[in-house]
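Quick start: what a row looks like.
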Amino acid sequence: MHSQPSLKHLQALPSNVKIWVEVSNAKPALHTEHTNTNNHSEVQYTSVIGQVCLHTAKSNVPILQVAWQIQGIQNTVKNYTTTTALGQPTFLTQWDLTQNPIQFCWWRPGTYIVTCTISTAYGIGQVSNTFVVTSPLVRDFNAWTGIVGVGLYHHTRMIRFAYSMNDFQIDGIYMNGIIAGQQSVDGYIAGIQLACNQRFCTADNSMNYRYDTNGTYILDTGMTNTVFYQNHVVQLTNNGTNINYEVNDGPGAELDSNLIRAMFIGNGDVSPHIPETYRMYIMFCPDVVGGIWVPLKVMQWGWEGYTTYNTSTQSWGQAEDTDVPEPIVSDPVDFPVWSMNTSQSHWVNY
């Protein structure tokens, strides 16, 4: 971060030199008096998390250099995009706080000050604007877990861990987020789930198999193959009314793959062991031009299952020590960052 010159070292600007900062895509706060001096005005704005604003330093004389100081810079992000084709988020993380204009948004609610130090041939001055940033209120984020169903899939010798379509509150995991829009916060809610997967299998042919993501969380596109989990997006009202964001999951459902299928067929009795963890993010995008998706809360959950296929009975059995621990909700959260997609995970036959 570039250091900001202290006021005592600033060379006073002549009264006829004016400096100011224009802010696009943010509203001046109602009933707020602007602070004016002989050279500049300072404004209080209202904004919402995920609302991208453009800040431009201006003057009635040529500007030689600018330097921005952003209070709470760890709570801001610049030029965040989600590329759905690869399921990868892209960050431009190298901050250049001398560029003009500069574009960014906040992803935490609060009151922040953005100060611009403007250098001209006639001296140096500063403009500080205040931003009151609001966000939706997550009233609750919880989950129910139950017995993980285990059985044959498509009449093949292949396991599938899944929730029951008839009662997913009993089998698998059911996640619910109760969210309310506050202070005219209007936008959309969706979920992004990341998975850290491992698959271990010991077969009768004395071969061991392993599939994993090397401890890296990858995007869980689910059965809909979309960035947002189950492609489920709901609109948030701005009058304080609660909305429910609901998704459900059956751990290990993605085991329906040609590689897993080939692994088990013809291998006799097999004993898969599957420990894995997930992170489900509740995401919010404001209904404004230039809005981006930012996380409100995250829930980490996981499970560890053991199953065995019996060749004599031609059936799968679930081990008694299959475990689905209680989910843990954390707040505050960071942006969900993942550095690989499913094609980069690997299989090992050893």
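That is the whole record. The helical segments are 258-264. The two ends are 49 Å apart (CA to CA).
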